[in-house]
Write a structure and sequence with these properties.
Strand 6 and strand 7 form a beta hairpin. Helix 9 runs antiparallel to helix 11. The protein has three domains: about 45 residues, Uridine Diphospho-n-acetylenolpyruvylglucosamine Reductase, domain 2 (2-Layer Sandwich), CATH 3.30.43; about 110 residues, Uridine Diphospho-n-acetylenolpyruvylglucosamine Reductase, domain 3 (2-Layer Sandwich), CATH 3.30.465; about 110 residues, Enolase-like, domain 1, CATH 3.30.390.50. The relative contact order is 0.12. It is globular and about 55 Å long. The mean pLDDT is about 95. About 30% of the residues lie in helices and about 25% in strands. With about 280 residues, the protein is of the alpha+beta class. It has a five-stranded antiparallel β-sheet. Strands 9-10-11-12 form a four-stranded antiparallel β-sheet. Strands 1-3-2 form a three-stranded parallel β-sheet, with helices on one face. The protein binds flavin-adenine dinucleotide. Flavin-adenine dinucleotide binds next to strand 2, helix 5 and strand 8.
């Protein structure tokens, strides 16, 4: 994209009007870091949404509501007892990128290496889309295809609602990288709900070594109703090959990617179970 003009609307509804008027000649601009990867030089007018009061994190009821233009650095710094999103944010690229890159930008045009979609799928997040009124979509539906398609007609992501972790809930995310700032070889995330020693429910997701972030239903099915122990985690993680086409890249064969995914899932499960055991209220 080639940014030729720049608009700074005063409200979300004005931004939507601008975008609808501009059609394909307009684009939402948040942190602007994705322009680095959008190689075509189509001239566009940028509609800057970073001054619309959408940079916040609020704990409301059972959710953390994160405004779409909240920088990843703010999410990384945020701490609360029922919150785990900071873990992955500190693993995304560099401080400089995290200072400007927003949660909305990360999840509205999903690149294969994007880490937050993996986490939000495992956490069962809700995406709030403004189209004149707010509509809430579960992450499963939102990430079923490339989300950028949802925003072609002037709609804007307003916020992301992440469920607060309750008693007996645990969450673990692991990003495997060659160097601190590189894209993930594999990102894996596990949400577990325990009933005593038994796994009551599980949401498992992965990304990076597959074409698009997704949940792993065979892994989940191999966990529910079983004991939360290493042997079960190993058995469940070994099902990862049934759920997704693991890709070879950066000198790794597809078999190596799948193996890496399995051991990464195992680590994420161990981490989630440790947190769930310790979270008694
Ligand atoms: C060198 C580098 C390395 C990176 N490494 C990683 C990594 O390892 N893992 C990772 O997850 N990310 C990584 N990123 C960040 C990621 O690739 C994107 O650049 C970033 O998430 C985009 O956020 P942004 O706020 O800059 O969005 P922008 O670039 O402003 O926008 C991105 C897209 O989303 C649209 N958009 C933005 N906000 C909204 C909204 N509220 N509603 C509707 N549409 C919207 C825009 O129109 C655009 O199409 C890296 C970035 C760089 C530059």
């Amino acid at each position: 994209m080639k940014l030729c003009e720049f608009i700074r609307p005063a409200s979300l509804s004005a931004a939507r009007d601008n975008l609808r008027e501009l059609g394909r000649k307009g684009m939402i601009l948040a942190g602007g870091t994705a322009l680095h990867f959008m190689q075509d030089h189509t001239p566009v007018t940028a509609v800057d949404i970073t001054r619309l009061g959408l940079s916040y994190i609020k704990h409301e009821g059972d959710f953390y509501d994160i405004g779409a233009t909240t920088p990843l650095a703010d999410i990384q710094r945020y701490r609360a007892p029922r919150w785990a999103l900071h873990e992955i944010c500190r693993r995304i690229s560099t401080h400089q990128i995290r200072n400007v890159s927003t949660i909305g930008g990360n999840v509205c045009r999903v690149f294969p290496w994007a880490d937050l979609p993996v986490i939000l799928l495992a956490m069962d997040a809700r995406m709030v889309i403004y189209s004149g009124q707010d509509e809430e979509l579960p992450a499963d539906e939102y990430f079923a295809t490339q989300p950028a398609k949802r925003f072609l007609d002037g709609n804007v992501l307003r916020s992301v609602k992440v469920p607060a972790l309750m008693a007996h809930h645990g969450f673990g995310s692991i990003k495997v990288v060659r160097t601190q700032a590189s894209f993930a070889l594999v990102t894996a995330a596990a949400f577990l709900e325990l009933d005593g020693a038994t796994i009551k429910s599980a949401r498992i997701a992965a990304g990076s070594a597959i074409p698009f972030p997704r949940r792993l239903p065979s892994v989940e099915a191999a966990l529910v109703g079983r004991e939360a122990v290493g042997e079960v985690f190993k058995e469940a993680a070994a099902k990862a090959g049934q759920d997704a086409p693991w890709r070879g890249r950066e000198g790794m064969s597809p078999e190596y990617s799948r193996h890496l995914a399995e051991v990464t899932l195992f680590d994420a499960l161990e981490r989630a179970a440790t947190f769930a055991r310790g979270r008694t209220e």
